[in-house]
Specification:
Layout (H helix, E strand, L loop, with lengths): L7 E11 L5 H6 L6 E9 L4 E8 L10 H11 L2 E6 L6 H10 L3 E3 L15 H8 L4 H4 L3 H18 L1
Parallel strand pairs: 1-4, 4-5
Antiparallel strand pairs: 1-2, 2-3
Length: 160
């Protein structure tokens, strides 16, 4: 191994891409259905290395469906220490997977801040609302968006 990494600090994010180069105006007037490809990535944010990816055509599903395969495949590479994700991945099952099965810290902010604590389901989701979370660790997730942006630009550049 080139880098001395003992544990992964992974960030999970996803992005959608158009499958055609047609303009929005043309697709609207010609009544062509919009087609997208959804790319979900788990990457080590400290070294900016992509660990696992999941590509699917239907962007209508929730992001939480892609969370378990990404985390499990990443943990097969190296043990995970911290997992950060945005509000789209907020689910008690995701917290349980990371904390109980992977023995790591999960930082996924609650989706609905305005919902009272007593109506929030789940121990770890309540904990995220009540105690908060480390903003310094959570802000490392921004590197995931950078990784997706850079890899998309390289792919588009090679296509031409």
């Amino acid at each position: 191994m080139f880098l001395n990494i003992n544990r992964l600090f992974i960030g999970i994010d996803s992005s959608g891409f158009k499958t055609t180069n047609a303009s929005q105006y043309y697709t609207y007037k010609a009544k062509i259905p919009k087609k997208y490809v959804k790319l979900s990535v788990s990457a080590d944010v400290l070294f900016q290395l992509i660990c696992t990816i999941k590509i699917r055509r239907a962007p209508t599903r929730h992001d939480t469906k892609d969370f378990p395969p990404l985390v499990i495949k990443a943990s097969e590479i190296l043990p995970i220490s911290v997992t950060v994700a945005d509000k789209g991945y907020d689910s008690e099952n995701n917290h349980i997977l990371v904390r109980k099965h992977m023995h790591a810290l999960s930082i996924i902010p609650p989706r609905y801040q305005s919902v009272p604590l007593r109506r929030t389901y789940g121990r770890y989701r309540n904990q995220m609302k009540k105690r908060g979370y480390s903003r310094i660790l959570y802000n490392q997730r921004n590197k995931d968006e950078t990784i997706i942006s850079v890899s998309y630009k390289k792919t588009v550049w090679r296509a031409y």
